[in-house]
Amino acid sequence: MTRRSVRRSVRVLGVASGSAALVLGLSGSALACNIKDFSAEARCDGDKGVIVVTDTDPSAAEGTVSVFLQGDGGVETKVGEQPVKGAKEGVEVTFPEDWKPSATYRVHIKAANVDRDIKPDLVTPSTACKKEESESAKPTASTSPAPAPSSSSSSSPSKSAPAQPATPAPSASASSSAPAGTSENAPSPAAGDSNLAETGANSNTGLIAGIAAALVAVGGGAVWFGMRRRGASRHG
Fold first, then answer.
1. Domains present along the chain, CATH in parentheses
2. How far is CA 37 from CA 29, 66, 68, 152, 177, in A?
3. Bigger pLDDT: 223 or 75?
């Protein structure tokens, strides 16, 4: 082998090695994790809000996704942090978050050779997931007066209650005046009955009293007549 052939062989090997290194470098760069493989989106899950981060890293590098809510004055509130392992078809990571309309979130990715934020920052839609009930949909109280009952329905005996007769109040003259032909001082029969019940007397009390008085008078007369006869016999 001549010196010229050796140089030619070395040159060919160098070109082949450089080509292989270039191909490997390009393929390695294509498979390496990149911030462009990540995306964030604000969605609605029914009437609740969620933030979804999608990882389409074909190298399937393991990493961490962190979400922060940016407030006024640059103050941030951490929403959550979850692990992620990408795939070419895409892997989603969901963060439950009741986001407000037009809110701004910062999403940070740390995986393999990536330690950056997804740019631009995530801005939520201008409409919330759950729409508030409009004032027009709320029922309003009716201001119209209730219809008055018709005369035919009010006069029907099956629907209207019968009128109650008014009780006449006793007049003062009727209550205070006594019936004609009676004495105001005469005892009422009720008063006589109550006295008889208390004393135990009956309707023969007057007759018995008259007979007793007559017997007393007869006895007294007999005594007087006997004493007179006795005195006359002594004197004779």
1. 35-123 (2.60.40)
2. 13, 15, 19, 83, 116
3. 75
